[in-house]
Design a protein that fits this description.
44% of the residues lie in helices and 16% in strands. The chain is α/β, with parallel strands linked by helices. It has a 7-stranded mixed β-sheet with strand order 3-2-1-4-5-10-11, with helices on both faces. Bound molecules: adenosine-5'-diphosphate (ADP). Adenosine-5'-diphosphate binds next to helix 4. Heterooctamer of 4 alpha and 4 beta chains. It is found in: Cytoplasm; Mitochondrion outer membrane.
Amino acid sequence: RKKIAVMTSGGDSPGMNAAVRAVVRTGIHYGCDVFAVYEGYEGLLKGGEYLRQMKWEDVRGWLSEGGTLIGTARCMEFRERWGRKQAAGNLISQGIDALIVCGGDGSLTGADLFRSEWPSLVEELVKDGKFTQEQVEPYQNLTIVGLVGSIDNDMAGTDSTIGAYSALERIIEMVDYIDETAKSHSRAFVVEVMGRHCGWLALMAGIATGADYIFIPERAVPHGKWQEELKEVCQRHRNKGRRNNTVIVAEGALDDQLNPVTADDVKNVLLDLGLDTKVTILGHVQRGGTAVAHDRWLATLQGVDSVKAVLEMTPQTPSPLIGILENKIIRMPLVESVKMTKSVATAIENKDFDKAISLRDTEFIE
Ligand code: ADP
């Protein structure tokens, strides 16, 4: 019987439970034993009770649960070769040689590295006397399949990541609340939203709530000049009769000299314009709560396909990432997707903002 493990890693996102549920049930449907790795890579290093076989009913009701019920963690030891060797030993002890990882680009990079090192790790485990050659014979290759769980929607090559629409929904709900009180007092609000290197949440929230101005890392504002432009835009909207102003700032927002633009920077400019201005940093409410319909079906369809991918892969198949493109679930080489994602960050570092935007596909409005 094929043994598959599923784990969640890196930052949690709504819909991760739906993904785990789909993997568990699809795996069982195809006659596999499915294990959940608790606490991300930390659980892989600890082994034993952190690797639990899941039954059909163990994931009942998980569609409507936020966060990740099997836990997640950041694990420094998995970045070290000795840590990955220990993880390999724990998987072999349970007879597992396929791993479905739901996480961000960091987690998926780690997973692909783990796969490429696997044969040499196994060899070393035999040399160390942990296993005999006979014992490791059936486990010469590790299969890795990636699912992208991230509220930031920051993975290149896929239209949306599991959790992004839920976070977006939460943000616009909060901004709607803020707008009501802002209008009552004729105030301006600066709302900081998540998305380290990716402005998707800020941009989409800004469009969905009709914000006056949006700051994102990919479309860096002109150094020393944005202040006047911001004032001009907000004043223009006031002149048209608007009773409030809303400015959305991505936490990674920059000017074109790569200086951070913070919510407080923006607030000071609006105060200078004479507006009664408050800052709201939404923080972790953006991660919490149940997954919206989009994330539930995305996680379910992708979870199903991740198990199919495991069963169809050969040792020569590059590790796939399950994505969605124009409403179709697709597979693409995980490494390429991660590389493209990193090149957006590099383009920003090089102040090549046009390139950063073009690498974000058509989702971004120029
Ligand atoms: P995310 O997956 O959300 O991008 P991180 O970048 O924090 O989050 O990665 C989560 C975990 O994945 C890390 O704590 C570490 O255990 C593992 N990881 C990340 N990058 C690597 C890497 N280059 N090599 C090995 N493991 C990695």
